[in-house]
Design brief:
The protein is mainly α and about 200 residues long. Among the domains are: about 30-65; about 75-125. About 55% of the residues lie in helices and about 0% in strands. It has 3 helices and no strands. The protein has helices spanning about 20-65, 65-120, 145-150. The longest helix has about 55 residues, at about 65-120. The radius of gyration is 66 Å and the shape is rod-shaped.
Length: about 200
């Protein structure tokens, strides 16, 4: 014999009460809701992933469109770096040339100064041993002599050790050859009254 779901008839199955039926229905509804929610979440996640895939694809396409610009920028950067390297090389070469020219100029200047010092050493009018001695930069003439050194200078042995002649004043009426007018002008004639007279000689008769 069959068993009625409402508990009628005979058998070992216990009849279901209204509460049990309500609970069963609630459980089924909850399960259906959970399954629906899970499906909705999965669908939303799938849609979100698809949207993100689309955005990523668009960004990749934009990046691909920027490739020529990037390559151009990289080329310009490489050219600028090469130009900077060339300029650094030229600057180093110019600096080395300037240093070489400075050394050559210093050597030329030192040689010139040695020549001037040698000339001053040979010149008897230059006291190259004085403390204030400086090589003359005016080539072609000796540096000015030191008056103090001239006063204290010993007599030149080439001149025989003789003293310099002293100037004596001229006699009255004589012409001083050392005076400004003595060497270039004749002496003024004296009056006849001041000229010495010679005695006259008369012949004997």
């Amino acid at each position: 014999m069959g068993v009625s779901p409402w508990g009628h008839g005979s058998g070992n199955v216990l009849p279901m009460s209204t509460t049990s039926i309500v609970i069963l229905v609630v459980v089924i509804v909850v399960v259906l809701l959970l399954v629906g929610a899970a499906l909705a979440l999965a669908r939303r996640s799938r849609l979100k992933k698809d949207e993100r895939r689309g955005q990523a694809q668009e960004l990749r396409q934009q990046a691909g469109q920027q490739t020529p610009g990037v390559q151009d920028a990289l080329l310009r950067a490489d050219e600028a770096e090469a130009e900077a390297a060339r300029l650094r090389t030229r600057a180093d070469e110019a600096e080395a040339k300037a240093a070489r020219l400075r050394r050559e100029a210093a050597a030329e200047e030192a040689g010139q100064e040695d020549t001037v010092r040698e000339a001053d050493r040979l010149d008897p009018d230059v006291d190259h041993t004085a403390k204030a001695y400086e090589p003359s930069r005016e080539f072609g003439q000796a540096p000015p002599a030191d008056p103090a050194a001239e006063e204290q200078a010993p007599p030149d042995p080439l001149e025989g050790g003789s003293e310099r002649p002293t100037h004596t004043p001229p006699a009255p009426g004589a012409v001083d050859p050392a005076s400004p007018t003595g060497g270039s002008h004749r002496a003024q004639p004296q009056p006849e009254s001041q000229l010495p007279t010679e005695p006259r000689i008369t012949p004997e008769r």
